[in-house]
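Q: What changes when iron/sulfur cluster is included in the input?
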Amino acid sequence: MRTSAERSFARRAQQALADSTLRAAVRKAQERFRTGKRNAEAELGHWEAWRRLGEAIRRHTIENLDFYLEQLADNVEKNGGTVVFAATEREAVDYVVQVAREEGARRVVKSKSMVSEELHLNRALEALGVDVVETDLGEYIIQLAGEPPSHIIAPSIHKNRRQIAELFSRVAGEALPDDTPSLTRFARRQLRRAFLEADIGITGCNFAVAETGTIVLVSNEGNARLTTTLPRVHIAIMGAERIVPTWDDLDVMLHLLPRSATGQKITSYVTAISGPRRAQDADGPEAFHLVIVDNGRLDILGTAYQDVLHCIRCGACLNVCPVYRHIGGHAYGSVYSGPIGKVLTPLLGGMDEWHELPHASSLCAACSEACPVRIPLHELLIEHRTEQVTRGTRPWAERWAFRLYRWVVTRPALYRRAVRWARRLLAPLADGEGKVRVQIGPLKGWTAQRDLPLPARQSFLDWWEEEGRKEAARQHEPRTEGEGRDGERSA
Amino acid sequence: MRVALFVTCLIDAFFPEVAKSAVRVLRRHGVEVDVPRTQTCCGQPAYNSGYREEAREVAKQLIRAFDGSACVVTPSGSCAAMVRCEYPRLFADDPEWRPRAEALAAKTYEFSEFLVNVLGVEDPGVTFPARATVHASCHMTRGLGVKDEPLCLLKRVKGLELCPLPYREDCCGFGGTFAVKMAGISAAMADEKIDHIEETEAEVLIGSDMGCLWHLGGRLSRRGKPLRVLHVAQVLDGGRE
Ligand code: SF4
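A: The predicted holo structure follows.
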C-alpha cells in the first residue's frame, strides 16, 4: 500500500506544494478530464438517473457479494480457467510467483492494474529474476522512472512531455525529440518487442461478469488486448468487489466508467475474456488464471464504509479534488490517492499508519458530487475522523479544545463572555491595522498563511441587546413623563 | 411575517455588521426579526472534526434556542447546511431529539434562499455601484443545494456589475479546521481562488459564507491585495460595512 519512504503526509504534501512543474502538470490533466466528463454527462443526458442506476447495481452486487463471487468462480472454471481466492497480499503474490515459476517464465508483460500495484507484484516477480514490462504507456513511463502511479487511471499524470522525453532518451541511449508522435513511436517499438517475447501476460480487471465468468478490460491503447492474447499464460488480478452480476449491468457500468474517467463515450478497446483459448479460437492464451484479491476488502462489508466497495475506479473524484490538484497523487503516500484513496487506504492499510489522510480534505464534497456511483466520500471521511475520536487517538490538545468548546457554547452566558474576552486577549497581538499576524501557539495554524482580523468591539448579540434596551427606554420615556404629569396633576 | 435570526458564532464575534445588514434587509422586506438570546454555534466544527458527541450537545443547545420560532433564517450557507442536512442524521437514533432536530431542519433557511424562495423577492430595491464577483461556497451549493438564489438577487442590484467567476464551483480551501490543520494546502487553494477572482478584475468579492470570506479575506490581506470582501446581506444593504 505504501509508496513513499517519507512517512509524514504533511511533509510529503509540503514537498509537492513546492513543486511547480508537478502542480502545473496535474492541473492541466485534471482540467482536461473534468471538462471532458462534464461534456460527456451532458451529451448522454439524464446523468443523475444513470448515477442512481449505477449506485443501485453496485449496492445490490456488494450486498450479495458472496453469491456473485461463487457464481463468477464457478463460471470461470466452467470456461476452463483457474480461480484462486487470495485472502492477503502474500497469498496473491505467492500464487502469481508460483505460476511464473511453474511456467518457467522469463518475461512478463503487464497491462495496467491498480491491484497489482497494491500487491507490489512487480517487486516479487523481479526478485524471482523475471523481467516485468508495463505496457500501458503511463505505467511504462513511471516504471522507467521507478515511481508508483500518481493517479488511478492516468499513472504518469504528474509528468510533462519534457520529463518523459528525458526518460525515454535514457533508455534509447540517444536524445529523442519531445513531441508526442516521436515519443509514442519509441514506446510502441519497445513494447512490441516485449509483447512478442513474453511468457505471461498479467492484467487487472475492470469488471467481472458473474453470469458468464467473463473478465472485462477497458482500455485505450490496445495493450490490454495484446497482453491477453500473445503470451502463453494470462493471469487476471481483480479486487474481490469488481463484479457485476449480468451483461445488462455491465452495460450501465460501461456507460458510466469511460465518461467519468476520461470523458469518452466508450474507450478504444473493451476486451471481454471468458477463459483460455478454446479449440476453435484463432488466438488466446493456453492457460487463464483469475486471482481474486481480498486483502482487507471483505472486512469492510457490514461497516459504515461499505459503500466504498461500490467504487469502479474511474478516477473522477481525483479529477475534481482541489487537494489532489495541488499536491498530486504521490503525496498521499499510498497506491490509491485522491478522495477514494483517503477513504480506502486507512481501511485496507490500517488507521494507525494512515491517520492523517482523512484530515486532508476541506469536505467540499466535489468528490461525492462527481462519483458516478454516488459514494458519499466526504461523509466517509467524517466517519473516519469520528472513529479516530472514538478510539481516542486524536492529540490531547485537540480533544481538550473540543471539550472546552462544548463546555462554552452549550452555556449561552459563558459563550457571550468568551466572545468578549476573545477580543481582549487578541488585541495586544494585533498590529496598527487591527490584524493579528503573529505566528504563535494555536494561532499559528491560521496566521502562518493568513491575517486574522480582531473580533468586533461589540458582538452582534451584545449589540442587539443594547438596541433592545434603547428601544425599551425610548418607548418607556414618554410614558414616564406622562405618568409624571399625571402624578403632578393628581398631586 | 416573523423570523428568528440565527446569527452564527463567527458572524456574532467577528462580523456583526453582516447580521446587522441581514436584519435591515429583512425588515425592509416587511419581516419582523427576532434574535433568540441563547443561540450560540451550530456545532459544525465539532461535527466535521469527528467529535460527534460534542456536536450533539451543541446542536441540542441550538435546537432549544429556536424551539419557539416558526422560521429560522441564517446568513450562512454552511451553518444552514449543518442544521438541515446533518442534524436529522446526528439524532437518527435518538427518539427524543430526532423529531426536534427534524423540526428545526425543516424551518431553517439560508438568507438569500429565504428572500427568493420564501418571500419571493424579485427586486431587492437597492443600489450598489461596483464591479463584483460572487464566490459560491461548497456547503451552500453542494450541501444545501442553494446555487442561484444569491445571483438572482444580486443581478437586480442597481449599478452592480457581476463578473462570472471562473471555476466558481471549486473550493476556496477554508474547510473549517482544515484551514488550520492543513494550512499549506488550504492557502494554495485560496491562492488559486484569488487568481481566478483577479482574472475577473472585480473590485468586490461577494459571498454567502463568512467562513470562506474570513479565510479568503485573511489571505488577500496577507498578500497585500486591496479587494473589498462583502456578504450578500451587506450588498443588499447598499454595501454597508
Ligand atoms: S470513488 Fe467514485 S469517483 Fe472515485 S474512483 Fe471510485 S467510482 Fe470513481
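Observations recorded in class: The longest strand of chain B covers residues 127-134.
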